[in-house]
């Protein structure tokens, strides 16, 4: 049996966002345990030319909700990208998950050949399937991975099992 567009999107994105949420909880506990300043961790980045932790969470949220919107035609909520606290980042994740879970399999399945054109970055025209498999999923996991790596780099006690969601 072939995997459906729904199975490749909503459950995958929801699981990844729940992993990010769990990572943020460990980051918040790390800040409390070490008496660190939350802003320093939320604004941490791996390199000067990379986005900070807050933006990695925002981009994971945006990538997942915009992928589902482009593939289903169901309008995604717009967020301002103004989160500056762990609570605000967690709320954004919860709001993103609520949207994702509101989209049904019937709204996503059968859109493998849907034309997807991105109006930024000079990307080629995609089919729904090629967009999902070669752009949306890799982009989503880039931001999930980078959020993990920023936290790890800042001394938060997380590892591969945390990234995989098996802790």
Automatic annotation (TrEMBL):
Q: What SUPFAM superfamilies is this protein classified in? A: DinB/YfiT-like putative metalloenzymes
Report what the protein is called.
DUF1993 family protein
UniProt organism field = Duganella aquatilis
């Amino acid at each position: 049996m072939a995997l459906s567009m729904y199975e490749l999107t909503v459950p995958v994105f929801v699981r990844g966002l729940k992993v990010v949420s769990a990572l943020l909880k460990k980051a918040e506990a790390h800040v409390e345990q070490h008496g660190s300043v939350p802003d320093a961790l939320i604004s941490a980045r791996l390199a000067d030319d990379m986005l900070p932790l807050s933006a990695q969470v925002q981009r994971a949220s945006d990538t997942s909700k915009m992928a589902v919107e482009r593939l289903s035609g169901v309008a995604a909520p717009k967020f301002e990208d103004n989160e500056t606290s762990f609570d605000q980042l967690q709320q954004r994740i919860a709001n993103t998950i609520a949207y994702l879970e509101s989209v049904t399999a019937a709204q996503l399945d059968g859109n493998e050949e849907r034309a997807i054109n991105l109006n930024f970055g000079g990307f080629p025209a995609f089919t729904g399937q090629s967009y999902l498999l070669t752009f949306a999923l890799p982009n989503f996991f880039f931001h999930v991975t980078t959020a993990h790596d920023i936290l790890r780099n800042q001394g938060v006690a997380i590892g591969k099992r945390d990234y995989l969601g098996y802790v």
